[in-house]
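Re: the 277-residue chain
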Amino acid sequence: MVAKPTGNSPAQRQLSTLSHTTRPYWQLPPGVERGMWEYAQSPDIATQYDDYFALNSLFEFDQQVAARYFQPPGLVVDLGCGTGRALLPLVRRGHRGLAVDLSRHMLGIVREKSRLEGLPVDCVLLNLVEMDALRDGFADYCMCMFSTLGMVRGRANRAKVLRSVRRILKPGGTFIVHAHNFWHNLLDADGPWWVLKSLLMGLGRRDFEVGDKHFPYRGIPNMFLHVFRRGELRRELRRAGFTSTRFIPLDTARRHSLPQPWLLGRIRANGWVVICQ
């Protein structure tokens, strides 16, 4: 693999030290909330991941988009790869893969799947905010799906992730990212109140950004997610150096592109898959 980082970078040493210990909040890796850390360190979350989503077609659209825009075959970097649900289908089509995740348990599953099928996939344990170990300009394609970018806490940290993506891509490389839509919350029963509260808190608190939320997920009471406004996400991508972006709005179930996007699409879209170059 042409893009394997060194195994003893400061970020990787920190992850190795923290992986099996409970540390105070201030010692968590940059951009990683407590809930996300608990999620990444849970072996049960990883081993149950495929079964949890087995009957859900949630990922099919992601795979279709990636197969369409990642041409011809090349090296694909999957940021927040999970168990490889988006990366491995691409590798089966002739790509090579680099799986990057905060969870050593997830990476272990990707590694075993790749071994059993004889697929060219390398696995790297990294925090997405700390990807300096990855070389400049080595990747043909990169993806960050399933709202992984929104799981990074803090605008400055997310900006660092996007700058790293731009840095590791070859000139003309393609980046695909998924994000949830802030305004779609208006369609939920309690959504208008949450939207108003988020807007007001964003004005009055320095430790809060409009779109930040915590919620229970798979037994973890405090998962973090930042949901984006379209203009916000477009600006962040452009600041990172992406000059061309195409937003594909998604329907409520996130299984298809949004029908009639011209009809209140800024609210009706559950989120977007964004194609960047």
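The longest strand covers residues 169-180.
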